[in-house]
Structures are given as C-alpha cells and as structure tokens.
Specification:
Blueprint lengths: L8 E7 L5 E8 L4 E4 L5 E14 L2 E6 L3 E4 L5 E5 L5 E7 L2 H12 L6 E2 L4 E2 L2 H16 L3 H19 L1 E5 L12 H11 L6 H8 L3 H12 L3 H18 L4 H8 L4 H12 L3 H5 L1
Antiparallel strand pairs: 1-2, 2-8, 3-7, 4-5, 4-6, 4-7, 4-8, 6-10, 9-11
Helix pairs in contact: 1-3, 2-3, 4-5, 5-6, 7-8, 8-9
C-alpha cells in the first residue's frame, strides 16, 4: 500500500521577465480542485504519487513520472488517486507565449498549439520540464531561464502538439446565439448579483433549459462561470498588489474568507500566497 506523503505544502511564484510566468511546486493529499479553466496552458510533471482529473468528458490518471498538459479554456478538476496524494511541478505559460513558440518553429504565424493527450509518458520532456522548473526556482540568470523554457516548449510542441487543432483561452471564447447574450451579460456583470431568471430571459429559454444548455456549451454552470470570472479578475488585482480583503469586495465575493475558499479550490494556494 502506498505510504501517505508527509503533509500538504505549496510554493508558488511568478517570473515577471517571462510574461509573468506562474509556477507551482506542491504536494497535495486531501486537496480537491474544483472544475475550472486556465487562460493559458498548464504543463507539469508528477514527481510522486498520482493525480486524477476530469478533462474533455473523461477521467484521466497521471502517475509518477508522467507529463500533464492542459489546453487553455478547458474545464478540468484535480485530486489524489490514493491516500498517498501526489507531488508535482507545474508551470502556466500564457497562450500567447505558446503561439509565439509555435510560430517560431514553423517560420510563420501559427494558432494556439493544441495538445490532444493530457497525460503522456515521455521521460525526455519530463526531465526538461523539471530542469526548467528547478532553474526558474533557483537560478537568477534571465538568459538561462529564457533558453531552457523555450527549448522545453519547442520540444513539447514538436513531440506532442496536434497541428490540426487549436485551443482558445476562455476570455476569447464566444458562445453561439442565444447563449451569447447571457455570456456577455455575465462577462460585464460578474461582480454583481445575477439572477438565473434574468439570464434565462436573455436567451428566451426556461431556466431549466438555459442551465442545461449553458453548461453543455461552456462546461461550467452559470454560477461557476461567474466565479471563474471573479477569480481571474482577483488574480489580476492581487498581482497589482491589492490586499485580499479589498480584492474580495472589488470582484463581488461576500468577504475575504469567501474569496479564500474559492481561490484555493481553483488556484491551489490562498490569495495571500499568490499575491506574494
């Protein structure tokens, strides 16, 4: 039987010289990630234990040594497979960075590279991700950071990207009518109280059919979508230096504890740690 990891711990930081690249080194045991999306990519290596997550309408298991690749705007979850939990290193490059790398490789403008397989067994890429991650954590050389990150992303795209398809960040996705009006209303009013009946009326659907249609199209319920928008804005304000209590009020959460609870479930660290 796998032995439980000692305790949960997280170390989060960002590199302002690399498009504010976000990085996470974490050990989780009981933590469960709520359904959420990333504006950019989520790329990492499972160093111990195993993680399971729901992604693209099915469950996946990422064992120790495997590489995890999540496309922008794709709803996914995350939790431990066993009581042993899991330990991993993750980095979250922007969608634009991956597009620039793909364009440089092709020698012409490219769309966002799409990765069809979220869990791959590739020891070469895994080693490159770990090496780049460790360098970004401990080394102060900007040139070394750039070189290792670009080399790793180039290899990742060449070995695992599906050139026939393209991913898209959540902020650029637009639903088809009649759901588009409800989405645009939520985009503009995410910080306010929004009633289900009002959203349904915009689509000329009953509340029941609107709920089903919206979740089928987005992958999130209207409430979860609103929470995602609030968290994205909260991240922007935290990076700008705003205090978590002020951020909670600004983006529409009831109080700081409400922000903390949702933030940790999606980002994996509390707002104060994310703010740095």
């Amino acid at each position: 039987m796998p032995q439980p990891l000692e305790r949960e711990e997280t170390f989060f930081w960002r590199n302002p010289l690399l498009d504010n690249l976000e990085l996470l080194r974490a050990r989780y045991i009981t933590h469960i990630f709520s359904p959420h999306v990333h504006e950019g990519y989520a790329i990492g290596v499972i160093e111990a234990g195993a993680e399971t997550f729901f992604y693209r309408k099915q469950w996946h298991v990422a064992p120790s040594g495997s590489v995890v690749i999540i496309n922008p705007g794709e709803v996914h979850t995350g939790e431990a497979v066993t009581a042993a939990g899991w330990r991993y290193r993750m980095l979250y490059p922007s969608a634009d960075l991956l597009r620039r790398v793909a364009s440089a490789l092709a020698g012409c403008a490219q769309d966002y590279p799409f990765f069809a397989t979220p869990v791959v067994n590739d020891p070469i890429i895994a080693a490159q991700i770990v090496q780049a991650h460790q360098l970004l954590e401990h080394d102060d050389s900007s040139l070394a950071h750039d070189s290792h990150l670009w080399h790793m992303l180039c290899c990742l795209i060449q070995r695992h990207a599906d050139g026939a398809r393209a991913a898209m960040p959540l902020s650029t996705q637009r639903l088809q009518p009649p759901l588009r009006q409800a989405q645009e209303y939520l985009d503009a009013n995410f910080m306010h109280t929004v009633r289900l009946e009002a959203l349904a009326a915009l689509t000329h659907l009953s509340p029941y059919h609107f709920l089903r249609s919206f979740k089928a199209a987005v992958g999130l319920s209207p409430h979860a979508y609103q929470t995602q928008l609030r968290l994205q804005q909260a991240k922007t304000l935290l990076v700008a230096g705003m205090a978590p209590a002020d951020v909670a009020q600004q983006v529409g959460f009831a109080d700081q504890s409400h922000l903390n609870r949702h933030f940790k479930r999606v980002v994996g660290v509390p707002p104060g740690q994310y703010r740095g």
